[in-house]
Fold Putative pentatricopeptide repeat-containing protein.
Amino acid sequence: MSSISIYESNKRNSSIAGFTSNIFSSNQLIHLYSNHGLLRDAQKLFDEMPHRNVFSWNTIISAYVKAHNLAQAQALFDSASQKDLVSYNSMLSGYVGADDGYETEAIDLFIRMQFVRETVGIDEVTLTTMLNLASKLRVAIYGRQVHSYMVKTGNDGSIHAVSSLIDMYSKCGLFGEAWNVFSGCEGKVDLISKNAMLAACFREGKMDLGLNLFWENLELSDTISWNTLISGYAQNGYGEKSLSMFIQMVQNGVKWDERTLASVVSACSGLKCLELGKSVHAWVLKNGFISNQIISSAIVDLYCKCGNLKYAESVHARIGTNNPFSVASFIAGYSSQGNMKEAQRVFDSLTEKNSIVWTALISGYVKTQQCESVFKLFKDYMTTEALVPDALVFISVLSACAIQAALTMGKQIHAHILRIRLEMNKKLLSALVDMYSKCGNIAYAEKIFHLFTDSDRDAVIYNVMVAGYAHHGFEHEAFRLFQEMLKKNVKPDAVTFIALLSACRHRGLIQLGEQFFRSMEDHNILPESDHYACMVDMYGRANELDKAVEFMRKIPIEMDATVLGAFLNACRVSSNVELAKEVEEKLLKVEANNGARYVQLANVYAAEGNWDEMGRIRKKMRGKEVKKLAGCSWIYLENGVHVFTSGDSSHSKSDAIYTALIYLNEKLHFSSTEYVEDIF
DNA sequence: GTAGGGTTAG
């Protein structure tokens, strides 16, 4: 109604004031139509204008940019009889803000602007728009170049520039640079740049820094600031803090919106808190928020994370869309239940696949240790996907390489990452260190570890390197690095101690192991079953069954198969069949379907020549129809992977292979004899 | 006097 009355008054004005006023009011009206989504009316009015000025052209171009009709915007831009810097900037922001696929056009237009710089010019709007392109592409070198361009042309001072720079550096993985920009303009920080810095802190996992920033100047905060905190905590795995921030937000009388709600749902999923999630779901249904795609896909994710895929399917079906985010949740949900068939099915059902679903499926195959499927999918991803390569995909594939000890593949992926100049973030570097270490190349792992600057070294990367040293038998290096970690005030976590305790158990360093275990309390880390299992295994390997028994008595948590299995091993080493029998019952209660456990049990009895007991276990195994997967070795050749089990003769060239093996064995024998002779 | 650029959700 309001647009009609303005149209009426516009007609009246034009009859009084003539052309200039007519152009002015028409421009305003076009803008108004566009803001209300009435693009046809806007176009009609534009077409009917007897005279237009540069504002008319810019307004109609922007109208099409806003409506995401870039083809039409571009056609108007190309045919416009009057063009100025605003026309260029409007078109540029259209390309940059497009959902996908206009990056080249944006760069081309920016280059063309360099040629008309004398007449049209380039200003801060142009450059902040280009910063957006850099953050969208996550390519820090572009962002840096634009930043220096801004400095050179004196376009880096305004508050618009500051928030864009913070956002760009943060999204490109350069938190330190973002912080430098922020702290370099103290005094004139506004709400938006503060919010950008808050988001940067939480993106980097620096929650305390973000929280301080938030409370320091509470007057300078709005719904977006609160939303940033609530979602930031949820995304970093602090569901409870996220929910308590939401409560504080309500208590402070701050208006919340749909984004707040989406984050609250995601906090519930993180906590696997089905009850609370369900009540939020009910509330969402009652208040009509279910039509919001992001909220409803967050609810789908909630049910998937809680393992209730039936509920998730029904919510998904009711929304009835092709939403890639919900599909990614299903893929993760089915993967965590080991059901890759269903995961693959929902993936295949999606017509338009984004990086998120690719990442979800690939990491699903990694979790279920189906590495060949990972490599095959990765090939498809690289050849069919026109998207910006996602670091998370590379991280997943690198961990598949680590599982398979596929060094050549890992090296190729590393080279590829360098070639496409993917920004090396911490997670990617950690994945590389882990890959090289687990593929047996500790020297390369070390090299990459040293690429981390001191301030970049967090607990995760230290853990990877400490574990790497431990696995390669360099326990002194592992302990040294742990000391360094403490000295640099990096807080060790549960994983750190698993690495340290493993180093001790492999070397029989009982006293040191006990010391590490006790010191966990000083670091406020509660031992988990893996730690207990490490300790039991340590005593077991050192033939200290008494100590293992004593330790077991003190374990305050319910013992799972890892701990019991370690104890069983200790019984085998100390040839104690009686205790083995005791633990057998408990072990088969908690893990009745793991074939490997039966074999382990049978081996304990067999080692003592107790064939009756062994036969009994074998029978038990048959009755339960459990199988143990045969241990195997494999080799990568040009045309793929070849898997061998002991005494395997199924390979088409097995005769030739065994002949070569006999020959190699002889060679090996000779050389090891020579080696021994050298020493003595 | 009108038109273009900055922060938060799955």
Summary: Confidence is low (pLDDT under 50) at residues 1-17, 672-680 of chain A. Chain A is about 75% helix and 0% strand. The two ends of chain A are 101 Å apart (CA to CA). The longest helix of chain A spans residues 654-679.
